[in-house]
Design a protein that fits this description.
With 770 residues, the chain is of the alpha+beta class. The chain has 24 helices and 25 strands. The strands form four sheets. The protein has a nine-stranded mixed beta sheet, with helices on one face. Strands 3, 4, 19, 20, 21, 22, 23 and 24 form an eight-stranded antiparallel beta sheet that branches. Helix 1 (20-47) packs across helix 5 (86-108) and helix 19 packs across helix 22 (637-650).
C-alpha cells in the first residue's frame, strides 16, 4: 500500500495513505522517527520499568505503576477491545507496527539512547493503551483525598471547602466556543490551550492525517493513534478541557497475612482472599527493589500492606516517611526548580493557636473517621488487620479506556457525529466543545463517573463498612451556549455534579469578559485572549494590604505601589515581581503557623503522592480563600501580611517578574538543564496560565502545552503552536523553533494544502504484515 509523508515549514508531519490502517502505520512510524526517546520513556513508565535506565529518581513512579496495575489494566483493556471493537483493535495494531518499524532509525538519531544505554524495545498492541492510562491516571486528582483526610482529621470538616482549589499537580485548560453569530465570517471558532506540565519533548504532537475516509488535522498524544483531544476535520472541529470530575476512589483496607496468603476485611465482616505476588524493579546503578503487588475486591493496593502503611516496598523505609520540608523540596525537584527568591523560612508572626500554647484542638470525628484505629497513618486496627490503601479506577473495573471513540472522531463530519463518538469516551473526563460548518454547536461532558457515596468522593472510604460500593454510572450532562458563547476553564459548570474541587472562576470570567468587549471576532484575534495576564485573584491580598497602617516608610511605599499596580503579571513588570514576592512571603508565614503544624507531618504514603500533601502549595493555591474567610484557626492574618510586606520592603526583588518566573520543562533526564529557561508572563489564575508555586518557587513547569484556534469558515485560517517544536531530538532544526512564537503569544498557520507542503519521503510499497 502507498504512504506519503510531507512536512510543512515547522517540520510538522502531514501523512496521506490509501486506507485507515496504512495511515495508522504511517502515524506510528513518523512518531517513532520524531519522538523515539519520548515513546520509549512513556512505554517504560506504563510498564513500571523506567528506573532500569533512568535510575533511582524513577523508582517512586515505577513502584506506583506496578502496584496500581497499570500495565495489567492496559492489557485487559486491549483484550476487551479486540472482543468489543475488532476494527479499532486492528487499527491500534497497525499503529504499533509503524512504531516498531520506525524506532530503530528514530533511536539512532536521538542522543538520549546512547547516554542511558537504552536499546529500543518491541512494542506490543496494548502499549498505546498503557501510555494513555499512565498519562492520565493522576488527572482526577485522587491523591487530594489524602490531603482532605488529613485536613479533616486536624482542622475539621470546614477545611475541605477552605482548601478546595486546583493546584500544581492538576491538569487544566482554557477553552471557548464562538458560534457563527459571534464571528466575522459567520462560521464558528474554537480556541483554547490545555494546561499541563510542559515537557521536553512536548506532550502534544501537531499532525495531519488523510486517507479516502477522512482528512483531519490536530494535536495527537505521542504513542496513541488518531487525534483525540483537539482536531479539525474540515467540516467539524472539537476541543476539550478537564472537567475536574471525581471518578477514582481510595479505600482504606484492613489486611492480614495468613498461612495461605493475604486477606482483606469485607463489608459483611468476612475475610476474603487478596491476590498477591512479588515483582522486582530493576534500577540502573542500584540494587533491584522488590515489591509486593496486592489487589482487593476494591482495587490494587497502592500503599501499605498486611503489615500496615509504610510497608510493601524497599522504598517505604525512607522516602514515605519524608517530613514536610523534604516533601516540599521534592515538589520543587519534580518541577525541576530551585526554591524561589525570599524562600528562606521567615521569622513567624502569629497568634497562639490554643490557650495553652500548644497545637489547636483536633476537629470532631467525622463519619467513618478512622482515628480510633490509628487514622490515616495507623498500622493496625482493633480487629487485628493492618491498614493499606486501594485505588479503584474505572478502566480497572470496566476494561475500557474509551479507544472506541477514536476512529469515529476521525470520521466525524457533523457535531452529531462528535457527540455520538464521545458517548464511548472513558477517561479522563472532559468538557467537550464542538462546532460544524452547518451551524451545529456542542457543549457537553464526556467520560465515565461512578455513582457512589459522598464519602467516596471526598475522602478515604472504609472498605470494611457497607455503603461504599459503586452503583452504576452518571449520565453525562450538557452545558448551555449563551449568546453564542461557551467558556470552560475548569470552573464549576456542567460537570459540577460530578466533581468536588474546581478551579476558581477567574480565568473563565476573564475570558467571557474579554469576549464581551465586542460582538464579533476572527481567528487572528484569539491570541490576545490566550495571552491575557490580568490576575483577579490578587484582590484578597491587596485588600489586606490596603487595610494596614503604621507600616515603616519603605513598606508603606511598597504597599502604595502595589495598590496602584494594574494587576497584570507581565514578564517585564517590576510591580508583578514585587507582588509575587509579597505573596510568597505571606504563604510562608501562614504555612509556618502552629495551627497548621500537624499538616507538616504527612503520613506514610508513596513518594509519588507526596506533592498533594505538601502544606506550602496547599496554602499557596488556597490563599484567596484563606485571606477572605471570616476566621482562620486563630491565625492573625493582618500580622502575617504586615510581616510579609515589611520583609519584602527590606529586601525587594531586584528585577522583573520574568527574571524569576521562568519556563522549566519536565524532562526524563536532568540534562540539558533549563535552569536559565526563558522568562514568562502570566500566573496560575491568569488566562495565560503559567503556574508557579508561591512560597516555594517562581519557576513554572506547568502552562499551555499547546494553543489552537479552529476556524470553521476555512480550515487553513486555523492556527496552532506548541511550546518547543515538532521534533523531539535535541539540536534538530524543529526541536525548539516554535518556542519564540509560544513565548510571544503568536501562532503558526495550519497548512493542509498538499501543494504547499514538502514531500520528504518517496512513495513506498510495504510487505509489512499489520
Amino acid at each position: 500500500m502507498t504512504i506519503e509523508t510531507y512536512r510543512d515549514a515547522w517540520g510538522i508531519p502531514h501523512l496521506r495513505a490509501a486506507d485507515v490502517r496504512e495511515l495508522a502505520r504511517a502515524q506510528g512510524r513518523v512518531t517513532a522517527h520524531d519522538r523515539a526517546w519520548q515513546l520509549e520513556v512513556e512505554r517504560h513508565r506504563a510498564q513500571g520499568t523506567s528506573a532500569s535506565f533512568l535510575g533511582a529518581p524513577a523508582v517512586a513512579w515505577d513502584v506506583f505503576a506496578r502496584r496500581a496495575r497499570l500495565a495489567d489494566t492496559a492489557r485487559r483493556c486491549f483484550e476487551a477491545l479486540e472482543r468489543r471493537d475488532p476494527e479499532t483493535a486492528e487499527w491500534v495494531r497497525a499503529y504499533v507496527a509503524g512504531v516498531n518499524e520506525g524506532l530503530p532509525a528514530g533511536a539512532a538519531r536521538t542522543p538520549e539512547f546512547a547516554r542511558t544505554g537504552l536499546t529500543p524495545g518491541t512494542w506490543e498492541p496494548w502499549h498505546p493503551l498503557g501510555i494513555w492510562l499512565a498519562t492520565h491516571i493522576l488527572f482526577a486528582g485522587f491523591p487530594a483525598k489524602l490531603w482532605r483526610e488529613e485536613a479533616i482529621r486536624h482542622l475539621g470538616e470546614e477545611a475541605v471547602p477552605l482548601f478546595a482549589t486546583d493546584g500544581p499537580s492538576t491538569a487544566g485548560s482554557n477553552g471557548w466556543l464562538l458560534a457563527g453569530s459571534r464571528t466575522t465570517t459567520g462560521q464558528a471558532l474554537l480556541a483554547g490551550d490545555p494546561h499541563r506540565f510542559v515537557e521536553a519533548p512536548g506532550v502534544y504532537q501537531q499532525i495531519h492525517l488523510a486517507c479516502p475516509e477522512f482528512d483531519v488535522v490536530g494535536l495527537a498524544v505521542p504513542g496513541v493513534p488518531g487525534i483525540a483531544h483537539f482536531a479539525h476535520t474540515g467540516t467539524v472541529a472539537w476541543s476539550i478541557t478537564n472537567a475536574m470530575a471525581d471518578y477514582q476512589d481510595l479505600y482504606r483496607e484492613r489486611l492480614r497475612r495468613t498461612n495461605t496468603g493475604v486477606e482483606a476485611l469485607a463489608p459483611d465482616g468476612t475475610w476474603t482472599p487478596a491476590p498477591h505476588h512479588t515483582e522486582t524493579i530493576e534500577v540502573s546503578g542500584n540494587p533491584p527493589v522488590p515489591i509486593e503487588v496486592l489487589e482487593t475486591p476494591r482495587g490494587p493496593v497502592i500503599a501499605g500492606g498486611p503489615e500496615g502503611l509504610g510497608t510493601g516496598t524497599a522504598e517505604a523505609t525512607g522516602t514515605e516517611a519524608m517530613e514536610t520540608a523534604e516533601a516540599e523540596d521534592e515538589l520543587g525537584r519534580e518541577l525541576r526548580t530551585p526554591l524561589a527568591p525570599h524562600a528562606e523560612r521567615p521569622a513567624v508572626v502569629h497568634a497562639p493557636a490554643a490557650a495553652d500554647g500548644g497545637r489547636p484542638p483536633r476537629g470532631p470525628l467525622a463519619p467513618d473517621d478512622e482515628s480510633r484505629t490509628g487514622g490515616a497513618g495507623g498500622k493496625s486496627s482493633a480487629d487485628g488487620g493492618a491498614e493499606a490503601l486501594a485505588l479503584r479506577y474505572p478502566p480497572r473495573v470496566t476494561e475500557d479506556l474509551g479507544f472506541s471513540a477514536l476512529l469515529p472522531l476521525l470520521r466525524a463530519r457533523h457535531v452529531t457525529d462528535v457527540d455520538r463518538a464521545f458517548d464511548a469516551w472513558a477517561e479522563p473526563v472532559n468538557v467537550v466543545h464542538a462546532a460544524d460548518t452547518a451551524g451545529g454547536v456542542l457543549h457537553r461532558v464526556a467520560g465515565r463517573v461512578p455513582v457512589r457515596s459522598r464519602t467516596n468522593r471526598t475522602r478515604l472510604a472504609p472498605a470494611w463498612l457497607p455503603g461504599h460500593d459503586w452503583q452504576g454510572w452518571h449520565e453525562m450532562p450538557y452545558g448551555d451556549i449563551t449568546d453564542g458563547v461557551a467558556v470552560m476553564a475548569n470552573q464549576r459548570g456542567p460537570a459540577t455534579p460530578l466533581g468536588v474541587e474546581f478551579a476558581p472562576p477567574h480565568r473563565a470570567d476573564r475570558i467571557r469578559s474579554l469576549l464581551g468587549e465586542r460582538r464579533t471576532w476572527s481567528a487572528a484575534d484569539m491570541p490576545a485572549i490566550h495571552t491575557d495576564t490580568h490576575l483577579a485573584s490578587a484582590a484578597p491580598l491587596l485588600d489586606r494590604l490596603a487595610a494596614l497602617d503604621d507600616l515603616t516608610p519603605e513598606a508603606g511605599r511598597l504597599r502604595d505601589r502595589l495598590l496602584a499596580w494594574d494587576r497584570r503579571m507581565d514578564a517585564d513588570s517590576t510591580d508583578a515581581a514585587a507582588y509575587a514576592a509579597v505573596r510568597s512571603a505571606v504563604v510562608r508565614h501562614l504555612a509556618a503557623h502552629p495551627a497548621f503544624a500537624a499538616l507538616t507531618e504527612p503520613p506514610a504514603h508513596p513518594k509519588v503522592l507526596l506533592p498533594w500533601l505538601a502544606l506550602t502549595p496547599r496554602i499557596a493555591f488556597a490563599l484567596e480563600h484563606l485571606l477572605r474567610t471570616e476566621e482562620l484557626y486563630g491565625v492573625d492574618r493582618p500580622a502575617a501580611v504586615r510581616a510579609a510586606v515589611e520583609e519584602v520592603a527590606a529586601a525587594p526583588p531586584a528585577g522583573t517578574w520574568g527574571d524569576t518566573h521562568r519556563l522549566t520543562p519536565w524532562q526524563a533526564l536532568p540534562e540539558p538543564s533549563y535552569d536559565d529557561g526563558p522568562a514568562l508572563s502570566g500566573d496560575h489564575d491568569c488566562v495565560l496560565c503559567t503556574s508557579a508555586v508561591p512560597g516555594l518557587t517562581d519557576r513554572s513547569a506547568r502552562g499551555p502545552a499547546a494553543r489552537y484556534v479552529w476556524d470553521l469558515a476555512r480550515r487553513d485560517d486555523s492556527l496552532w503552536v506548541v511550546p518547543l517544536g515538532a521534533d523531539g531530538v535535541p539540536g534538530a532544526p524543529h526541536h525548539t523553533d516554535q518556542l519564540p512564537l509560544w513565548l510571544k503569544g503568536d501562532l503558526a498557520p495550519v497548512v493542509t494544502d498538499w501543494d504547499r507542503l514538502e514531500r520528504v519521503d518517496l512513495t513506498e510499497k510495504t510487505d509489512v504484515d499489520i
